[in-house]
Amino acid sequence: MPLIDQPIKTLNRNQLIYWITFVIHMMKNGWTHVAVWELRIFVELSLASYFIVEEMDVLSSILFHYGYTILMFYASVCLVLPLVTKRWNWHVIWKMPLALLLEFLVVCGLIIWVSMASNALEFSYTPNESLSVEIVNLKGVLAPFMNYIPFSIVYYVLIRLFNLALKSLKEGRLQHKMTSTLKRELWRAELNPHLLFNLLTSIRGLIDEKRSRTVMSQAIRLVRYYVHTAGKTISLSEEIENCELLIAINKFRYGDACFFNVKISSNLGTLRILPMAVLLLVENIFKYGDFRNEEQPALLTIDYHEGCLVIQTTNKIATNTANDSTKKGLKNLQERLHEYYREDGRLTSELRGNTFVSIVKINNIKHYTG
């Protein structure tokens, strides 16, 4: 299970992935390392020149000190620590100190060799006297070892943690995407038989009439539209066109007893919307509403103003329909809206006397291009 598997309110999952990737990139970037080392050397040399007044071979000391420090830092980060922590388990508790001890012994051997080569390790011997060994400035040579070890461990652990967090976030994003896809397919599977049943019911009463061929063509177009809308969003104008097909089919079915008005804003442009979002509201009216009253016809209105799309259906309640009959389909639609639009999309439904009103409101709809 991913370490981070819950929706994050303050930062979007994709934003977190972007920033963690950016931090890892900066921490691994060669120019970043050069800049950090330059800054550290500058600060240390500035302090050293302030406190140390004795003469010394400045160039050779600086080259040895920082060359040795940088070499051992990257040896720890790129070789020793990855080898020890290849698998995170309790063995790391004793493996890491042992590895650092071995590294320390290697460093000591390197120090002695370099010291002998640079006369920092002096041998003095005279007859009838014991051999004496004097290590000059050994403290200054060993100090970098204790200096780079903490920094290398901190750097390595941070990189490891950031990589784990990034992996967890990507797994969470993939899991969320797969869950969303599965939910969408389940919704489609649930709606598919529902819509087809109502279409076939509409056509059944016309099977012996000449106009049945026209209705069948319209039904085929509608089913084809439904089958091929597997993407996240589709053109709103295409959705409206298929809503009008569904209305036309039912007007064929009910004839003069079907009253359904449509009012659509002229500024919809190239807006996109979830498939079946409007069609489901229209189909819901034909299944549960009373659309046979000329004085109180069913109504679909679509309006767009200042980035907000409002879709509203109004219909008289059928006398033989239970109050909770429409809940399942509308609940599915509400879940789909929330899944895709989050807080920007919502569905509200209410009874106003003998009238049932459903309103889909989508804010910032132009941001959702699918």
TrEMBL record:
Top-level taxon of the source organism: Bacteria
Q: List the Pfam families hit by this protein, alphabetically.
A: His_kinase
State if Transport is listed as a keyword. no
Q: Which GO terms describe its cellular component?
A: membrane
Keyword match Transferase: yes
Q: Can you give the residue ranges of the Signal transduction histidine kinase internal region domain?
A: 186-257
Keywords, alphabetical? Kinase, Membrane, Transferase, Transmembrane, Transmembrane helix
Q: Which residues cross the membrane?
A: 34-53, 65-84, 96-116, 148-166
The molecular function GO annotations come to: phosphorelay sensor kinase activity
What is the protein's given name? Sensor histidine kinase YesM
Name the species this protein comes from.
Olivibacter domesticus
